[in-house]
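Researcher: I've got a protein sequence and the SMILES for zinc ion. Could you write out the 3D structure of the bound complex as C-alpha cells? I'd like something to compare against our soaking experiments later this week.
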Amino acid sequence: MNLSSVTCPICGAKISGSNDKYHFTCRFCSFKKAPALGTKQNTENYLEKSLKDIGQILALKDIPEIYVDGAQEEDLRQIKNVHQVKLIPCAGNIQKIDGIWSPMTLPFQDDLPGFFKEKFRQLNPGGILYLSTPVARVFQRNLPLTGQINFFTSKNIMFLLEQHGFKMAWRKNRFAQTLKIIARRN
Ligand SMILES: [Zn+2]
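Model: Sure. Here is the predicted complex with zinc ion in place.
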C-alpha cells in the first residue's frame, strides 16, 4: 500500500510521519497546521484594530482606494475611516488594483499558495498587500484563535511572500506576537 505523504505548503518539504494534511508540523520551516478549535470569529473585530495601520500603506503608495479582504460593505461602513481612502470589499473577481488589506486572514486560510497567487493576480505591479497574523516567538506561545488552522513564524511568512513575488516594504514591531507586514508586488 502506498501511504500518501503530506507536502509542506510553504517550503515544499515532505512531512515524514504524517499523512494528515490538516495536522502536521514541518520540521524544515516550522510551519504548523492543526485542526480548528471552534468557529472563526467575525472579521470586524480584526478589521477595526488593524485599520490603525492604514496610514502606512498610504505612506508607501498614495492610492485612492484599498480593497479589504473578508469584509462586507456594511462592515466597512461602520468603521471610522479617518484616512482619505475608499475602503471596498475585496471580491475574488476584482483585478488591476493597487492595495489589498488582509488582516488576520492567513490563520484561517485553507489554501495558502492559492491565497498568494490570487493576491498577485489581483494587484498591479508595485501594488501593496497588508497582512497580519499571530506568529510563534521563541519564548512565548500564543493561544490559538478560534478557528485558526495555520500557525506561522515570521520567517515562514517572509518565505511565502518571496516565493509568490512579493517584497517586504514595512513591518511593525519585529518582536510582537502579531506580525503586521506590508509587502509590495513585484
Ligand atoms: Zn515547511
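Model: Residues 112-122 form the longest helix (11 residues). The domain at 42-135+155-185 is CATH 3.40.50.150 (Rossmann fold).
Researcher: Great, I'll pass this along to the crystallography team.
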